[in-house]
């Protein structure tokens, strides 16, 4: 018999599927011109080579980018049709999804958030956050069943783990909020924007049916502060790795729901049928994850190579020519080629996932589904007598790793600028590789690291953490993205839109001659 949390999840998803089937799709409003579509598709691919993102966040990010341009730059609230056309041209959605109903719903969503922004006088960070919410809500409108499944499975994950996580020094409310965030991170690899929208619906459950926005506007600053605090709290990143195994079990459950739809409850309740599906799915997943890590790695390598080439031409080469009076080709070549090659090498394979791992996953799923069984997890965050010693040891390790690398680079005749650039990109590459490989290992419940791997991991920690800090600090400072967004994209998209409309006009004139 299914546990209470799983049974409630199945009932809610069944209701969402029934609602999705009852919706009658209106006629498509998008017409695809091959030339315009190819130009738009090429632009989108180019942009996301320059602005590296995780694959599952790309469409939502594109929606937010389009909204910012339409709302803030072009000052147009009625954007549903144009937004859908851009998504079709950029190959983010099929043209069948661009319907009159979808365009009308998108305009309603945009109008509602703009009205909240006006009533609350929300500008700056809060105003931008509302645009992000609007983008996520529009993405949910385009894939309603997928969003419903993700939300309900994550809620079931949270309810299963609630009460099983203890953190000394934190209140139960704070622990639950951070556990909720950790469930989104661990299960769906949610980024800050996706998590922020989940917290928005948690704090404002009446939002979907709200008509009077005055009450929401009055408490908007406090809600925005709570959401920001919830996202930035590092406790969720301490909890997420500890619930990794349970997140794997719920990913299998999510996959069963996606595949079997209204019959998912029957499959989840039949242990033999569930086991057969889990084995088949995991076998295909292990292969797909290795392919995905290679694809993500190649995208990251291309992004890094062009970035390194530009930095070398703009900073390092002029410094050597005009300050040092000559070019040292060996350090310059190493600085251009080493980091892309290192990233390529680190992201080739995800690691072995075998039958032993599969059997461990199946046993864990049985415990979650039929017994509501979850491990008790304790997170240590407080100060102990050894905390100071550990902190000093970490600082010494930091100096040892970075000092050793700098010494090696000096022996290779690197100048100060070359050393700074080498260390900067080494940290970013290490973090990129860590993120990609972490995603690839998300199906592994049995860890069997060898001594050499453990030592390498320890030495890499200061570099990876530095790369994470640099990535978070400079993620909004990407000169290429700024140029694309504010100089190229607006006129380019206007030209594409005009071209598409002109092609339709010529087609209509041609039809009149028949």
What's this model, at a glance?
The chain has 514 residues and is mainly alpha-helical.
Fraction in helix: over 70%
* Structural classification: mainly alpha
Mean pLDDT level: 80
Order of helices and strands: HHHHHHHEHHHHHHHHHEHHHH
Strand content: under 5%
Give the beta-strand count. Answer: 2
Uncertain runs with pLDDT below 50, 5 residues or more? none
Distance between the termini: 67 Å
Gross geometry: globular
Tally of contiguous helical segments = 20
Largest sheet: 2 strands, parallel
The gyration radius over C-alpha positions equals: 25 Å
Main sheet: which strands, in order across?
1-2
Task: Please render the helix and strand layout as text.
Elements: H1 4-22, H2 34-50, H3 58-73, H4 80-89, H5 100-119, H6 124-142, H7 144-161, E1 165-166, H8 172-188, H9 192-203, H10 214-232, H11 235-239, H12 244-260, H13 264-269, H14 271-324, H15 329-346, H16 355-371, E2 377-378, H17 387-411, H18 416-440, H19 451-474, H20 479-512
Parallel strand pairs: 1-2
Helix pairs in contact: 1-7, 2-20, 3-6, 4-5, 5-6, 6-7, 6-9, 7-8, 7-12, 8-12, 9-10, 12-16, 14-15, 14-16, 14-18, 15-18, 17-19, 18-19
């Amino acid at each position: 018999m299914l546990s209470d949390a799983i049974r409630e999840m199945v009932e809610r998803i069944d209701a969402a599927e029934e609602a999705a089937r009852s919706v009658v799709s209106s006629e498509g409003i998008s017409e695809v011109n091959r030339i315009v579509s190819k130009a738009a598709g090429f632009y989108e691919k180019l942009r996301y080579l320059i602005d590296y993102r995780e694959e599952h966040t790309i469409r939502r990010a594109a929606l937010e980018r389009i909204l910012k341009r339409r709302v803030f730059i072009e000052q147009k609230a009625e954007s549903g049709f144009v937004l859908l056309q851009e998504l079709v041209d950029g190959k983010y959605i099929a043209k069948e999804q661009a319907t009159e109903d979808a365009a009308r719903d998108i305009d309603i969503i945009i109008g509602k958030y703009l009205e909240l922004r006006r009533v609350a006088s929300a500008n700056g960070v809060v105003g931008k956050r509302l645009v992000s919410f609007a983008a996520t809500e529009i993405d949910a409108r385009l894939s309603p069943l997928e969003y419903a499944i993700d939300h309900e499975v994550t809620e079931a994950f949270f309810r299963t783990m609630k009460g099983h996580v203890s953190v000394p020094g934190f209140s139960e409310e704070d622990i639950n909020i951070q556990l909720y965030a950790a469930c989104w991170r661990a299960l769906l690899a949610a980024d800050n924007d996706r998590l922020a929208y989940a917290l928005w619906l948690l704090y404002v459950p009446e939002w979907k049916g709200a008509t009077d926005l005055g009450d929401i506007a009055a408490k908007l600053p406090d809600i925005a502060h709570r959401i920001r605090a919830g996202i930035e709290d590092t406790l969720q990143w301490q909890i997420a790795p500890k619930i990794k195994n349970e997140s794997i079990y719920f990913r299998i459950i999510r996959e069963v729901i996606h595949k079997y739809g209204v019959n998912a409850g029957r499959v989840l309740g039949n242990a033999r049928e569930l086991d057969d599906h889990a084995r088949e799915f995991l076998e295909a997943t292990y292969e797909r994850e290795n392919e995905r890590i290679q694809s993500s790695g190649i995208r990251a390598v291309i992004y890094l190579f062009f970035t390194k080439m530009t930095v070398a031409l703009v900073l390092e080469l002029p410094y050597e020519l005009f300050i040092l009076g000559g070019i040292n080709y060996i350090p310059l070549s190493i600085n251009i080629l080493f980091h892309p090659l290192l990233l390529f090498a680190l992201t080739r394979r995800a690691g072995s996932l075998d039958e032993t791992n599969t059997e461990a996953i199946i046993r864990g799923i049985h415990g979650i589904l039929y017994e509501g069984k979850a491990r008790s997890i304790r997170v240590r965050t407080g100060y102990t007598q050894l905390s100071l010693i550990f902190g000093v040891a970490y600082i010494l390790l930091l100096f040892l790793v970075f000092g050793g690398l700098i010494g090696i680079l000096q022996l290779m005749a690197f100048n100060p600028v070359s050393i700074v650039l080498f260390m900067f990109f080494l940290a970013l590459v290490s973090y990129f590789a860590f993120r990609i490989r972490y995603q690839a290992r998300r199906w592994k419940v049995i860890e069997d690291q060898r001594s050499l791997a453990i030592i390498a991991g320890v030495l890499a920690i200061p570099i990876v953490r530095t790369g994470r800090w640099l990535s978070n600090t400079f993620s909004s400072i990407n000169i290429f993205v700024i140029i694309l967004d504010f100089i190229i994209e607006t006129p380019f998209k206007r030209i594409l839109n005009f071209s598409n409309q002109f092609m339709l006009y010529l087609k209509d004139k041609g039809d009149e001659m028949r």
